[in-house]
Amino acid sequence: MFTNYLKIALRNLKKYKGYSFVNISGLAVGVACSVLILLWIQDEFSYDHFHEKAARIYRIASRGVFGSTKISQTFTPAPMPQAMKNEFPEIEHIVRLYGNVNTVVEYGTKVFDESQIMLADSTFFDVFSFTFMKGEPKTALTEPSAVVVTEAIAQKYFGDEDPLGKVISFYFDEKYEMKITGVIENVPRNSHFHFDFLVSLVSARGLYNSTDWNDNTFKTYLVLREGTSAEQLEAKFPEFIIKYVGGGNENFLADGDSWEYFLQPLTRIHLHSHLSREIEPNGNATYVYIFGVVAVFILLIACINFMNLTTARSTNRAKEVGMRKVIGSSRQQLMRQFLGESILISFLAFAVALVIVSIILPWFNHFVGKQLELTRFNNPQMIFSFVGLIVLIGLISGSYPAFVLSAFRPAAVISGELRKGMKNKWLRNLLVIFQFTISIVLIVGTFVIGSQLNFFQNKNLGFNKSQVIVVKNLLPPGNQGVSFKNSLLQHANITAVTMSHTLPGRSFVNEYFKPENRPGITLNVCMCDADFIETMQLEMAQGRFFSAEFTTDALAIVINETAAKLLNWEAPLGKTFRSMGQTFHVIGVVQDLHYESFHAAISPMAFLNLRSPLKWRQNHFSIRVASANMAEMVKFIENTWLSIAPGIPFNYSFLDQDYEGLYRNEQQTGKVFVIFSFLAIFIAALSLLGLTSFTVEQRTKEIGIRKVLGASVPQIILLLSKEFTKCVVIANVIAWPIAYYVMNKWLQKFAYRIEIGWGTFFIAGLLTLMIALITVSWQAFRAALANPVENLRYE
User: Is 558 helix (H, G, I), strand (E, B) or coil?
Assistant: First the structure.
């Protein structure tokens, strides 16, 4: 019996090749899209779960309100971990992290530019689970000048030699020699932070021993003891803050101001943490949920396509059903036959989908910046889930012919009464409307995301990011930096060069400042030289920027407009700040600049002079060029670098590209929306193609009679197109308010955003209508041109 059913199913697939292609390909594309999205979602949820104590690891973060400014950040002060360990028995282990640091690393004649360098307490491996290949986790970071490296770095520097005990040199404020005390496996890709070198924090005495509670420098992680609650520990933080941050003074904050610490579960950081100064750009749970919904919707569109065509085609099987019932087939046998055929098509579509996924997965990985593999589904739970899904799709799609056709009387079926009574199209039209509603929502989403990204790129940022080449300052301490800068300025097409410790789009240091006659606040700080204003083309609101002509500018500070408003200073020039053991006097107020992303409102910030006693490292040279030939300028800059610092790697980037990296998630989301919107429309168009073909076949005699009576080709096309056109118009009416609501909610997370115009909906609606008309008209045009004599001979 099974063999007989299989033969009939294969014969039907062969007989109706076009219908079979549309049915299988539409479902296969939908399943392939869903599999790709599910792989991506599974990877996003896997971050940091590889640590043995992941469920008990938390990061301490801080947030506060100072006047009208809200601060949420990942930084914590140096003395806090030891104080917490002393105060809270709930804490099993606690560790501080500092970095990532970018510098030159040397071993013998090998010199490399390294940017994945972190410093950590000796308790690092008590908190985090990284597999040691060589060395002892308990003692690897206990001594000064100790460093643990990854397997990749060990191979890069030492090849097949044993790296333990080898000494490598780092250039920070001076040259440091570090002994390798351990080698670990490479940090897994699904970790929210990465490093190549892990230096013992005790090596940096100034950082390690700092007692300044206002110097927020470290990321701090802790492990709670078994059976303790994060909420109970957080409840003790307010008293802790008063005792240590406030020095025992309950009123150390001004009225309306606040400061608090809170705990972030390690496994939620990647998707749910969007604080200032994250170690690396995180993912976004909103996007994961959006794409989860997209995966379900695309699969729904594909299933609806499958169901629609199966239902439509089932009427052509009416006589077969009647004959089978006449010769003795039971209803149960007919039901098994139809359901079996539908499940077979589902399995064929799924097999094709896996082939599609395996072919495009490398490209998809490059596109989304991941290393996804189909082997993630090689577990019984996932296999059973997919098999169950395939069977469910087959059962639902085959349910109409199985339960409805098999119930009719043989006489009604053979006489044609069944065919006449099955012309109710409301269900098929409803499914078409649903398909296009989803497609239109996706298209509107694509347009809105693209418009928001375009808004980022074209809005006045308060500085000019174009035509600026950034060179990492890997030079050892000394006058080589000044020599490099002066040599560059000799070129006619280099208009300005500045040195700074950070740049817009990169992490700023957050420091505590005590303004005169005002409560203390924190400012994001950029330390730079006097040429920063010309290179970045900033605008002054009041006063002036640093100048080499004024020796007193070593202790000057330039604040932004937001900081001046926060302090309610109408005349800020000449006012003073106290911070880091120094007193700074205000010489200017710079117009607000978007040095962070548009997700957050502009925060209070300040510029300090590189000539100050603080001696922060000059991490970047920023070079403004007037030439359009960027390749030529880069070559000149590289040659100048090599003449000043032979043997030290030359590393450059473009400021505008670096800044756009702040919106990596949005850019990837926009690209993915484009792809899956196109695929959703493609599947919906396949459905229209199949249904139009079926409609033309059903109305063959009608079309022939109309042509004999004088109907023109355009009239025939209009006759066959208007029904589906009406469905697409209704889909637009339904989709527009849904798309507006969803995308407006998405835009709310940006402090600066576009307004959604009606033009977006009109273009999306027109696009889908054109696609539908082209799809339907092609089949209608063929039917209208057919010879009416042949049409009237039909059957």
Answer: strand
Domain ranges of the chain: 2-43+285-455+664-792, 68-253, 468-662
Contacts 24+ apart (CB under 8 A), 285-293: 286/746, 286/749, 287/665, 287/669, 288/41, 288/44, 288/45, 290/669, 290/746, 291/37, 291/40, 291/41, 291/672, 292/37, 292/41
Query: What's the rounded Cα separation, in Å, for the pair 240 and 62?
Result: 13
Instruction: Give phi and psi for 740, each to the nearest 5.
Output: -60, -45
CA–CA separation, 510 vs 320, rounded Å? 78
Q: Which of 675, 666, 555 is nearest to 608 (CA)?
A: 555
DSSP state of 117: E
Distances in Å between the alpha carbon of 697 and those of 144, 175, 654? 83, 83, 60
Rounded CA gap, 340 and 447, in Å? Answer: 42
- Provide the token pair at 306: 């499958």
Name the packing angle between helices 700-708 and 664-698 (round to 10°).
Answer: 70
Distance CA 397, CA 323 (A): 23
What residues pair up with 652 in beta bridges, in sequence order? 471
Q: What is the dihedral angle through the alpha carbons of 65, 66, 72, 74, rounded to the nearest 10 degrees?
A: -120
Give 134's DSSP letter.
E
Q: Which amino acid is at 177?
A: E
- What pLDDT score does 411 carry? 60
Query: Which range is least confidently modeled, 81-90, 160-169, 199-208?
Result: 199-208
Q: Identify the three-state secondary structure at position 471.
A: strand
Tell me 649's DSSP state: P
Q: Enumerate residues 6+ apart whose C-beta is below 8 A from 417.
A: none
Task: Transcribe 590-640 into DSSP letters.
Answer: EPP---S-TTSPPPPEEEEETTSTT-----EEEEEE--S-HHHHHHHHHHH
Residues 6 or more apart whose CB falls under 8 angstroms from that of 766 comprise: none
Spatial neighbors of 61 by CB under 8 A, at least 6 apart, are 72, 73, 74, 76, 261, 262, 263, 264, 273, 275
**588 close to 573: Cβ distance less than 8 angstroms:** yes
How many Å is the Cα radius of gyration of the chain? 34
More confident residue, 140 or 711: 140
**663-694: per-residue pLDDT in tens?**
777 777 777 777 777 777 777 777 666 666 66
CB 216 within 8 A of CB 77: yes
Q: Which residues contact 120 (CB under 8 A, 6 or more apart)?
A: 95, 96, 97, 98, 141, 198, 199, 200, 201
SS3 content of the chain, % helix, strand, coil (to 5): 50, 20, 30
CA 97 to chain centre: 25
What CA–CA distance (Å, rounded) separates 142 from 122? 5
Distance between CA 236 and CA 776 in Å, rounded? 68
CA-CA distance, 167 to 190, in Å (whole number)?
Answer: 30
Beta bridge mates, 540: 590
* pLDDT one-digit tens code per residue, 582-606: 999 999 999 999 888 777 788 899 9
Q: What's the first-to-final CA gap in the chain, in angstroms?
A: 31
pLDDT tens for 615-649 read: 787 888 999 999 888 999 999 999 999 898 887 88
Q: pTM for the complete prediction?
A: 0.78
Q: Which helix (H) or strand (E) holds 577?
A: strand 576-579
